Amino acid sequence: MRYDEQVDQLTLLGSLRGWWKQNAARHGAGAALRNFCGELWGYLRESTPEQRRRRYGDIEYDWEHRVDTTSATLDWRARLLGVFHSPYQATEPALFQEMMAALRVDFAEFLFIDLGSGKGRTLLMASEYPFRKILGVELLPELNQIAQENLRKYSSADQKCQVLESICGDACEFQFPAEPIVLYLFNPVSESGLGRVIGNLERSLIENPRRVLVLYHNPEHEEMLASSAKLKKIGGTHQYAIYEAG
Ligand SMILES: C[S@@+](CC[C@H](N)C(=O)[O-])C[C@H]1O[C@@H](n2cnc3c(N)ncnc32)[C@H](O)[C@@H]1O
Questions:
Q1: Is residue 128 within 8 Å of residue 112, measured between CB atoms?
Q2: What is the pTM of this model?
Q3: CATH for 146
């Protein structure tokens, strides 16, 4: 089976089962049940018209570029899947520019990868830098489909990279191409999932030593990167962390 065909069968029940297995194994069944009720309550609160209106707060990018990257228009199923995996939230443009400036690299040497790319806003924003290529990997087929549509529609006088692709796949199974990479992570996976991503990256670095920068936005599980023997912190703020290998 091709990598991008593996998640065609992403169902709510399967996602709930996976979430439960992981939580119960980690915290015990009682705590998992409490967590589940908490998540469900959070989901219901987020479903009110007020909260939906609040989510439209990130619509400016879409108006400016005539694309659909806001989290406000997600249907109930995509939002519920977000509870069991990681909720979709697009990166804020000004912060993305700040993070790109902080990288201090020759973009033309690098492949930009966003694991958990959602509707593809970061892919579009990254295309304003001269990356060799830009790749997004998104678990939810419906978000990946919207991302692909956005990539087709997007046109900007500032675009410097024209080689953009969005594929559907599980970040935890992703095999890194053997080339210099800027890896972008905005909390796509749980702590254990991040462990698998880092494990795959470390194996890839052992097989093909090269420059890889990891840009971790809202670094909830930064300790996982900090404990990798292959990665070294080279910068960041309270909003992001930059690690480098090679
Ligand atoms: C916080 S959003 C970030 C979206 C995008 N990277 C951005 O910065 O605009 C996290 C995304 O990760 C996706 N996701 C969750 N689990 C994933 C997995 N195992 N593999 C790939 N993507 C995943 C979610 O569906 C969601 O779109």
A1: no
A2: 0.92
A3: 3.40.50.150
